[in-house]
Amino acid sequence: MTSIEKHNHDHSLESHKACVSLVPIFKHLDEEQLDEIMAATRSVSFEKGEIIYREGDEADSLYIIHKGKVRIYRLTEAGKEQLVRLLNPGDFTGETALFTDSVHESYAEAMMETKVCVIQRSVLQGFLLKFPSISLKILQEFSNRLNTSETQTTRFSSETVETRIALFLTEQMDQKNDRNIVYLPMSKKDLASYLGTTPETISRKFAELEAKGLIRQKSTRQIEILEVDELLLV
């Protein structure tokens, strides 16, 4: 029995509509098309720390995050977690199952109370044929994730930890925010996993960058970038 099968399902129409209309691959559809997809969707709730799916589980559904946050990670041969990405409301995972019979190669864990909308592969494949625009949206997401993965792999092999941190911080900047405030989207533990280092190294490098006058740690998750151009040169 999978993690999904162990949970009670929320069949309320309002919940499904809110979830389906939120995800980018569906929100361009008209009301009638959304209603059809809603009817095929089930909503499942998870507590903080619960596993939504694990490595080796059959990959047969698309999972859409309705509320909460989910971390996707893999285990290295040494048993160490490698964070792949974080999912927020409107994000989805399990998309590779839409095109082939396979098993999950990673873990999906709820980081807080989380509600996930689930659509089985056989059902969604029918929608892909009926509404080709969904396929195009999914392919766009595939492309974005592939680019992100390739960038991350390249940085692991060619950049120092300090440079990885600097690049991550500048990429998190809100271009509309003149004060260059960065809100870290994850804990230092998860950030360390994502950047291929340790929490202790993250803390030390933040302190070093602050001592150089490049950043200011305003709180645990809030960092002000003082010298953007200098930071990119570390």
UniProtKB/TrEMBL annotation:
SMART domains in UniProt: cNMP (SM00100), HTH_CRP (SM00419)
A Pfam family it matches: cNMP_binding
GO CC, any one term: cytosol
Domain HTH crp-type, residue spans: 159-229
CDD domains linked to this entry: CAP_ED, HTH_CRP
The keyword Transcription regulation is annotated on this UniProt entry: yes
SUPFAM superfamilies named among the record's database cross-references: cAMP-binding domain-like (SSF51206), Winged helix' DNA-binding domain (SSF46785)
Record keywords: DNA-binding, Transcription, Transcription regulation
InterPro entries: cNMP-bd_dom, cNMP-bd_dom_sf, Env_Response_Regulators, HTH_CRP, RmlC-like_jellyroll, WH-like_DNA-bd_sf, WH_DNA-bd_sf
Domain Cyclic nucleotide-binding as annotated: residue spans: 25-145
GO molecular function: DNA binding; DNA-binding transcription factor activity
The protein's name: CRP/FNR family transcriptional regulator, anaerobic regulatory protein
